[in-house]
Amino acid sequence: MKTAALLTVSTLMGAQAFMAPAPKFSRTRGVARMSFEDEAGVTGPLGYWDPLGLSADGDVEKFNKYRAAEIKHGRGKRLVHLV
After folding, report:
1. What average pLDDT does the segment 50-64 reach?
2. Rounded distance, CA 82 to CA 60, Å?
3. Is pLDDT of 20 > 50?
4. What is the end-to-end Cα distance of the chain in Å, rounded?
5. Where on the phi/psi map is residue 30: left (φ > 0), alpha (ψ -120 to 50), or beta?
């Protein structure tokens, strides 16, 4: 009986390691935060994908800078593959 209870508890605690943490919402006042969900390149099943949170603050200038760098590096990489 002790073994079954220990196994059940350890299984449930181990399953929590695979659950995503609850999202944290900040309550900032007076700061307009922009959502990039309507930008070109947003895919259907994933939506706007920013795994590192580089544009989480909603700064449009920083977003445009990152997007231009991504396009530039992507074009350079394609050019290298052609050569």
Report:
1. 85
2. 33
3. yes
4. 68
5. left
The whole-angstrom separation of Cα 13 and Cα 28 is 34
* Mean pLDDT computed over every residue of the chain: 75
- The torsion angle over the Cα atoms of residues 66, 68, 73 and 78, rounded to 10 degrees, is 140
pLDDT at 15 over 70: no
In angstroms, the CA 78 to CA 19 distance is: 37
Question: What pTM does this model have?
Answer: 0.49
Q: Quick one: 67 exposed, middle or buried, by C-beta within 10 A (0-12, 13-18, 19+)?
A: middle
CA distance 9 to 14: 8
What is the C-alpha to C-alpha distance for residues 4 and 34, in angstroms, rounded to an integer?
51
